[in-house]
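Quick bug: dolichyl-phosphate-mannose--protein mannosyltransferase output formatted oddly.
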Amino acid sequence: QIFNQHNAESPNLEPAFYRMAQMEPNLDHDVSWFLLPSYWAKMVVALISFLCFANSYDGDFVFDDSEAIINNKDLRAETPLGDLWYHDFWGSKLSSNTSHKSYRPLTVLTFRINYLFAGGFYPVGFHVINIILHCTISVLMVDVFSILLGGLQFSSKGRRLNLAPKSSLLAALLFAVHPVHTECVAGIVGRADLLCALFFLLSFLGYCKAFKESKEGHTFSVFWVLVSVVLGAIAMLCKEQGITILGLNAVFDALVINKINLLVLIRKLLYKDKSLENAGLLRKGLLFRITLLMCGGAGILYIRWRIMGTGPPAFTEVDNPASFADSLFVRAINYNYYYSLNAWLLLCPWWLCFDWSMGCIPLIKSISDWRIIALAALWFCLIGLICQALCSEDSHKRRILTLGLGFLIIPFLPASNLFFRVGFVVAERVIYLPSIGYCILFTYGFSLLSKQAKKKKILAVAVLGILLINVMRCALRSSQWRSEEQLFRSALSVCPLNAKVHYNVGKNLADKGNQSAAIKYYREAVRLNPKYVHAMNNLGNILKERNELHEAEELLSLAVQIQPDFAAAWMNLGIVQNSLRRFEEAEQSYWTAIKHRKKYPDCYYNLGRLYADLNRHIDALNAWRNATVLKPEHSLAWNNMIILLDNTGNLAQAEAVGREALELIPNDHSLMFSLANVLGKSQKYKESEALFLKAIKANPNAASYHGNLAVLYHRWGNLDLAKKHYEVSLKLDPMAPGTKENYNLLRRKLEQLQKKGG
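Here's what came back:
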């Protein structure tokens, strides 16, 4: 009879494996928790993980979603699929010095599939996939935790036995409802972490399958070891952390399959003991399997390095200030403080923020800083756990603590600043995988407390309370991720010293047209970070629109002084200088912007406006033509070319340009209007009328459209229709220039005709 692998208390245990399971104490024996069949346990985990994040399904694209999805050309059908393998996560070439070097082609491929099936940038489909992925991962966690907490055993028919059903359910629930996961699930860009975690877990489960036919680890399947390496490579192609599963598979092999006592092994290595084979290294093929894992990992990293092309990405001091500190002591102290903050987010995920950079966490520069206590607490706990993991006489305790620490620390290593500089201070998304280790340690701690507690039900109720609080926190945090306004404002109370938070709140307000409030937040961002060039640029833009030109010039000049290659600031400075009628300086600023950004259609457009103001018509037309070559849908540049050619009497050329523009942008009513004016002057009344009517249909409230159509009818001799459209134009805009005079002329003409008719 097949063992019911999901019920630790089933009487139908197969004798051989029952004895093997009892060689170590059963973690579930002391855990006061629910015992459910595996199917129901997974259903409960899936349902609760869904409830936590379901309200994010109809959220907007927020924060990094704009760059990674909306502005990423790799999502569009016209970009060859092959380009995904040579571009970074944000759509830039990996070989570029400005590339972020985040190589995640499989994640971008899923975004592209989302875009294709949705027929555009509709965020619902993107969010739904993220929620499904988190639910799937949480369900897989039931199996993963059953192995990590209960050990790996199979029945004689090859079915894996769940020796810790209660503990694995608790750990999976803790993972499913952890609020620190909200960024990965509710933020679409978090898909990289979710896909990475999915293949990370599949790699681990695949590695476990290698021992399905094994008797005490003596035999194993090379095929499944290689499959786990391939799945690890796929995880890394979703996000860089995925490669760490190969190291964790090796740790699992040593501790669970080979039951190695690390302290004994270290002693034997130190004393060059010849009995290492008896420790299980060679007898059970551990060295061979680790060699396969190492060779696979080295090959993956080599290919990754070759594709990356150049050195690591160039981050700025505001991204990660500790990594730019001159003192090794300051760097070390602050890195450790960052680790303690990550640990605190796992323990108490109440204060969550979309961004922790730009002064959010001031540097520790002195040992007298009270925050040193956090470092001491972190290392006190870690050293205590490590000592127990190495020195405890209880092999079961050693195994669980070592696996818990391994899953906590190893996936975090790529974000630790130990091997290379990272572009953030603290990032909630990178704790998604390390939280597996936290859940193992929490569950083991709960089992120890349950063992000592007299009233176990009270302890179980307390844990249920923690789960319930986390569910509510997830729901609240998910709702904050639904829109940029809620997300950015939620960060003000958590990181009031973060200039980027104030900048993003200001940008959101400016996008909604609330310039006065936006100015306040931009000024605060610049106050908090006097070198924040993007805040200076945006503030300068608003001041320019409000005609506060001198302050705008000061801010933009300071921005380009701080960052000389800031093309957008150079262009905006040119616009301000043009408004101040300092044309030579404006021209120089425009050309400097183009020097730093070769393909800059908006700058060519503004340069053309400058030349038009200076009556340098040929230069203006050339600048606008460059803008349309770089951006064929640049409606303003096309319009200005048509209008300039029209005004200078080049009607045939204006008509040709207008027709070319409408072929590229057939639904642009402003282009229809401009071309209709040209055709009217060329006495092509029928075609001109058709374009005017089409433009009016697209934009019926444009007074100038009705006014110019009336002029056309006036010239054409269709006076009744001319009168009708003059009246509509004046109703829409009583002050429309020239319309009232033309209307009065028409009325006099109609009166004269009536008198003649009379």
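Actually, after a second look the formatting is fine. The chain is about 65% helix and 0% strand. Closing.
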